[in-house]
Amino acid sequence: MAASGASATEALAAAIDAFTAAGIETPRLDAEILLAELAGLDRAALIADRELILQPAAARAYSEAVRRRLRREPVAYILGRKGFRHIDLAVDRRVLVPRPETEMLVELAREVNPETVLEVGTGSGAIALAVADELAACQVTATDVSDGALEVAIANAGRLGLGERVRFILGSLPEGPAGFDLILANLPYVPDSDGLPPEVGQWEPAGALFGGPDGTRVIAEVLAGLGEAGIGAPVIGLEIGQGQGELVAGMVRDAGWPETEIRLDLAGIDRVVVGRGG
After folding, report:
1. What is the rounded distance in angstroms from the CA atom of residue 200 to the CA atom of residue 183?
2. What are phi and psi of 178, to 5 degrees?
3. CA angle at residue 162 from 159 to 164, to 5 degrees?
4. For the residues 57-82, what does the mean pLDDT come to?
């Protein structure tokens, strides 16, 4: 794809053509992000300098990155990192790629301004670490049933200097009873029968994606588990999937948060259920 001595412009054009032919949704963006990263430039400089010649090592690395992207591997896994809010997170196939919609849970935390937060199903640590980063007085407890995911999250916490502010626990929930100011969770909510883009379905961990026939099985289990363990909070926020708002809001009310609100993302899709009064 990009041979030694190839111009960056030619390598970029070839990658865009290949990505377009493969049906990749954002061919130019992906090609530019990968080349800018591997050439050690920002995207603006890359686009502006049409005479740029790739160093042999960068050309080889870009060729390999293009091959990986053509196999529909997510850009974040190829680069090994993903930005989320104000932090950069290391990511790999043990964890989901953090998504912009999940920032709504961090925004809820900023509204509540809690001193203590429980995050259930932390994955890469995106929510827990963003909350700790943005709320300096907040102590966060984060859980996950995947030891691989916790390894990623703990490494991210150490790299960001937040290891003393976030306590990680292997398992669904901490041992109760316990009280927190806020509970947050981005649990598996994709219905088992849903088809997903190759970047998601073929690469991201299925255990963090699929939530049973209607997508709410894990949410129901966690809500029940909170009650059984005596773990509570005045406010709870759950990320959900399209069309799940009313169903999950009812589940949250039944679990002990009588006041519920469904928040929509920028696409107008049900994305977060907030419960209050627990």
Report:
1. 26
2. -160, 150
3. 125
4. 96
Q: State which H helix or E strand residue 19 sits in.
A: helix 8-21
Classify residue 50 as exposed, middle or buried by CB count within 10 Å of its CB (0-12, 13-18, 19+).
exposed
Q: Flag the least confident range among 46-50, 88-92, 132-136, 200-204.
A: 46-50
Q: Do 174 and 243 have their domain in common?
A: yes
Is 154 inside a domain boundary?
yes
Could you give the number of structural domains in the chain? 2
Q: Which two tokens stand for residue 275?
A: 């419960």
Alpha-carbon gap, residue 262 to 243, rounded angstroms: 11
- 65 is in which domain, residue-wise? 8-71
Render pLDDT for 11-45 as a digit per residue (tens, 0 to 9): 999 999 999 999 999 999 999 999 999 888 877 77
Binned at pLDDT 50, 70 and 90, residue 3 comes out as very low
In a domain, 260, yes or no: yes
pLDDT tens figures, 80-114: 999 999 999 999 999 999 999 999 999 999 999 99
Q: Are residues 162 and 262 in the same domain?
A: yes
| Token duo for residue 204 | 């991201």
Pull the structure tokens for residue 245.
């708002």
pTM over 0.70: yes
* Contact yes or no for 123/184 (Cβ under 8 A): no
Tell me which DSSP letter residue 268 carries. S
Say yes or no: 23 and 152 in one domain: no
